[in-house]
Amino acid sequence: MVKKLKMNNRQLWKKTSNECQLVDFSNENGSTLVNAPNIPVMFWPDGSVCWPITIWLMERGKSYLARSNSKGIRNSNGGSSNTHASLISHFVRFVHNYHSKDFTSLYDDDLKRWAKNLKEEIDTKRPNSKKRKNTQIGTIMRSALTFLFWYQRHMLYHNKLIGEDIGNQITISYNTIKTKSKTGKTSRQKYIHHRHIPDNNTPKKIFAIGHENITKLYDALRETTLNIQVRKRNECILKLLEATGGRRVEVAELTIDDIELALTTERLMLRTAKSNNNEREVPVAKQWIEPIARYINTFRKKKVKELIKNGKISADPRSLFINLNNGSKLYETYISKLVSDLRRAANINEKTCAHMFRHRFITIQVATRLKDFRKGDLPIDVANSILTKVASLSGHSNPESLRPYIDLAFAELDAWGTADKVLEMRSKLEGAYREIQIIKGELEIDKLSKQQLFYKMTL
To answer: In Gene Ontology terms, what is one molecular function of this protein (predicted)?
Structure first.
């Protein structure tokens, strides 16, 4: 029997533990236990389990894990499953409040009402602003439509709930959009649509973290983290976010072997389960990589030996970022929490999150390649070429999704010069700047002996 829980108004789902197992009845020889770690469990607002959504999320999570394992990604913390859970929770709340938890009672007009509710909701932190843009509302509603198709296929004896036919309770259509791959090949992608999903008439706003706020994060880390092992590890996390523009999961998946290779090639391999592209190479100057290599050979090496001696692990796990208590790999959620905690410690009022390092990286890449053009003189073919090149570095499957960065990039042009060499020079300068900032900060709080300073400056 599952007990009802008092659910937080802001989140309707919780994740299973790393040790969670479920009973699998699909085996003809009898039931078996299967591992089910980090799977979102959805609850209705009244605290009871919403089993249809939970089972749907489990299936999606299973698909994500299979894709991760096929690419060699170890034990993901369910980032994509968490995203699906967050999106569908809006639908769960609506069905609970207006339809007594009955998915089969939904009709087209109900989706109209739901869309209206989503559009009119006010942001509590910014009372003069709506809580979400039309694009986000569309993503939320398409998640619900995808679930309803699954629900109809697996849990109903008829197919009248949702479909393209006029007789369905919910009538949908399929639209197509042209996309261009990194190789320049054009293709059409089909996506589900409903007439009450609002048009994407609100421009996508990109927020990149600024140089000043990045400096504040490093300062806050130094001032608030007394454990030098934790501080040095987290410094490396910030450096890699800044230097690579990698997604959180891509940074979390890095190994010490990746860093060793990058010392020679000055190119870092990033891998993710987000798309069909297994991995990509990102140019990273030695000024970023060398301090991380020193961390591996000093603080991390010492901690791994200690964990082995204490019986916590049997061998080096090879993951670059590990839990200092048990040696397990750090998940991408830790990176999110790290930046969030540092933002509060640094008293940064504006929005600041780990993903904004990625926006900054992409903006700089686009800005440098726009060097020879003024805002009104950018030919379409040149813009497409620039976005295709940057997409190969950022890991975006569709270069068109980078177009909002063009406006943001022009703001960067006044601060930096011309030619592709500028990217290399800028990376080296910023990498060196961060290292000087860290050394200076440690000198100010008397954390560094003369011998340690000499060691850092001569490596």
So the answer is: DNA binding
